[in-house]
Design brief:
single chain
Length: 678
């Protein structure tokens, strides 16, 4: 891919060849041509295209081509010597010029000596030439000839070569000022060789300062005398830069697991809308971003959204010091930090402008506002807008993907996508066990986070059986220690949110949607049927709910009423004939019975009989008030007798065995000692 002409510079390179070689006569034009452009603008790539075009010409015509790269040579004396070695080699290796070649090799060596670079040289096809040996077989008066005479001899021998000679000097931007001056002296010494054309590539500002000893005006004047034609590198428009990146990604799409329609990705289009104006202005930037993206994406492709990897790669290329600072800041820039210090930071900055926030997070980077646009694209904390609620969990503004990218490895206790796929696609007999294991240990939050993302993806987690297996696996939540009071609610809310998102998305066709809802409602022991049903209660304004507008409903109103009757009847039977109540991880089933008016004195008495230990009472209270989850007092008092509850709840408080301060708050809220709406 690196050799592809994605910016369509090939035609320009072909035209440049016609400036170096007169194709009608087949001879060099004798021009000293300078291809000028700033560092990173793609001069070397164009030079390589010129070399390729010249090689194609040389395949059918005599041609001597030398591409000399001074930056590969160490030492200023070696620079001149190395040039003449390469020039002699280029001439000698063509058998058509063997007779004149041997003479020319010696003459070039003598000329190099005269210029002050005497040394042993080795020429392929001719062998090693020792400076002393050359002197031994060179007449004394010949050795003492002036530089002018040495040069004249070289010119006469070159004139005998019936082929154009093209010398290319590239990468002058990579060498220091003294070496630039040395190269310019070299070109001046050989610039008027007959039948020789020269192509130099450099940044005119850099070269002028170097040649003029920091006097740019003087340096430009000198270069104008040396260079007969100065050709600026063609500019690259914004649309060409975008096409370069898109064409690169077209080839990457199949290998790098991008979606087929990645070009239409709204977030990619948003990034492309500003990144070429503000950051990616040279071909070198484009290439470096592409290669940086490839490196990151191949490591964390399953964990981080690809457009965010691309934006982060842009930042890494144009401002590595900002990326280094981000690695120090860590999760403080994320929307879901868990460190107390990160929370405090976010709270303290919540009322500041994005500019102030940037300056506080990046105090040692004076030009930080220059990078505001890409930083705010990645992290809403730096944006004027409130956090986008349509961002999936793989975006860098969230803790897991961001820390994964910083570490280039999964964060502790995270579940990789490949492991989630294994769980989703497992045979039914094993899946419940897999899910139970995933949500019963420290990976529970990661499991829910990953599932929420994959529930939005076409082709995954679509089968009703998977969600029924999740329902069965949720029973392990009863084993979660009471010192983790928020885990039961957060896991269930996450899973139920997956289902509601899935049902409202376009990833399910209408038949699959209704099938999933039907299965969830039919299996009354599962926890998700009541969630889906109560969502419909709100849509239609049933059972004292206020109706919601513009909400998508899977079931017709009559179907909802019928399903509510059937489900409440099944749930009541479960409650009266088993310890169903003790295994609930969410209120939805209980509230369905209450909503349809079926939770009566018998149900209440049964609930009170089941809650015969302090731990059972505490777990029951956490259904209503755990992890910040709150219902109004009237709902709570409709489920159990308030006087009975006060007596048992006081006993729970007195036991002082509530495991966690949040549990104390939950019981106090249930007792009405704390306002429920705080």
């Amino acid at each position: 891919m690196e050799n592809e002409d994605l910016l369509d510079r090939g035609s320009f390179a072909n035209r440049l060849v016609s400036v170096l070689i007169d194709k009608d006569s087949g001879r060099s034009t004798g021009h000293v041509v300078a291809l000028v452009g700033p560092w990173g603008s793609g001069k070397t790539f164009v030079v390589d295209l010129v070399k390729k075009s010249l090689s194609e010409f040389g395949a059918e015509n005599p041609l001597i081509l030398l591409k000399h790269e001074p930056w590969l040579v160490t030492g200023q004396d070696d620079l001149i010597r190395r040039f003449f070695i390469e020039l002699a080699s280029s001439i000698q290796k063509d058998g058509r010029f063997k007779r004149v070649g041997k003479k020319l090799v010696k003459s070039l060596h003598n000329y190099a000596n005269a210029l002050g670079s005497a040394a042993d040289i080795y020429v392929p096809g001719f062998g090693k030439i020792l400076s002393a040996l050359v002197r031994l077989f060179t007449w004394p008066w010949e050795r003492e000839k002036s530089i002018y005479e040495q040069k004249s001899k070289v010119e006469k021998l070159i004139a005998e070569i019936d082929a154009p000679i093209v010398i290319i000097l590239d990468e002058l931007d990579r060498i220091d000022d003294e070496e630039v001056r040395k190269v310019v002296q070299l070109v001046r010494a050989i610039a008027d060789f007959p039948s020789v054309s020269y192509l130099l590539a450099f940044d005119i500002n850099h070269a002028a300062r170097a040649v003029g000893n920091n006097d740019e005006k003087k340096g430009r004047a000198f270069l104008e005398k040396l260079v007969s034609i100065q050709i600026p590198l063609p500019s690259v428009s914004k649309s060409e830069r975008l096409r370069f990146l898109e064409d690169s990604f077209d080839e990457l799409a199949s290998k790098e697991r991008l979606s087929i329609d990645w070009r239409q990705d709204a977030r990619f289009l948003e990034l492309a809308g500003f990144v070429f104006d503000d950051y990616l202005k040279s071909p070198r930037d484009l290439v470096r971003v592409r290669e940086t993206f490839l490196a990151y994406h191949r490591i964390v492709a399953d964990e981080v959204y690809w457009v965010d990897i691309l934006a982060y790669s842009v930042l890494a290329v144009v401002s590595p010091h900002v990326v280094q600072r981000l690695s120090f800041i860590g999760e403080a820039v994320c929307e879901d930090p868990i460190e107390v210090s990160a929370f405090s930071n976010r709270f303290g900055l919540s009322r500041d402008t994005p500019e102030v926030v940037l300056e506080r997070y990046f105090p040692d980077i004076p030009d930080i506002l220059k990078y505001k646009r890409v930083l705010s694209f990645l992290f809403p904390v730096f944006s004027e807008e409130t956090p986008a609620r349509d961002r999936d969990g793989d975006y860098l503004c969230y803790r897991r993907p961001f820390l994964t990218l910083l570490r280039l490895d999964l964060v502790k206790d995270a579940i990789p996508r490949r492991e989630m796929l294994k769980i989703i696609r497992a045979v039914k007999e094993k899946r419940v066990a897999y899910i139970s294991d995933a949500i019963s240990d420290d990976k529970a939050a990661s499991f829910v986070d990953r599932l929420q993302i994959m529930a939005r993806e076409t082709g995954e987690v679509l089968e009703a059986d998977f969600w029924l297996d999740c329902s069965k696996a949720l029973q392990v939540l009863n084993l979660i220690p009471l010192h983790k009071p928020d885990m039961r609610h957060s896991i269930f809310r996450g899973l139920s949110g997956c289902i509601l998102t899935l049902l409202a998305s376009d990833s399910l066709n209408p038949i699959d949607r209704r099938s999933l809802v039907s299965e969830l409602l039919t299996h009354s022991l599962n926890a998700f049927g009541p969630i889906v049903l109560r969502d419909h209660f709100q849509n239609y304004g049933l059972f004292n709910w206020s109706p919601r507008t513009n909400r998508f409903s899977l079931l017709k109103e009559a179907e909802v009423i019928s399903a509510a009757e059937e489900l409440s009847h099944a749930l009541i039977a479960n409650h009266l004939n088993s310890d169903w109540l003790l295994h609930q991880v969410d209120l939805s089933g209980i509230l369905v019975i209450r909503d349809v008016g079926k939770w009566d004195a018998v149900c209440r008495t049964r609930a009170q009989d089941l809650l015969d230990t302090n731990e059972k009472v505490l777990r029951f209270v956490l259904l209503f008030y755990g992890a910040g989850y709150m219902v109004d007092q009237s709902t709570f008092e409709a489920i159990v007798d308030p006087e009975w509850f006060k007596s048992v709840a006081f006993q729970v408080l007195k036991s002082r065995n509530l495991y966690d301060p949040l549990n104390v708050i939950a019981v106090e809220k249930a007792l009405g000692l704390v306002d429920s709406y705080n």
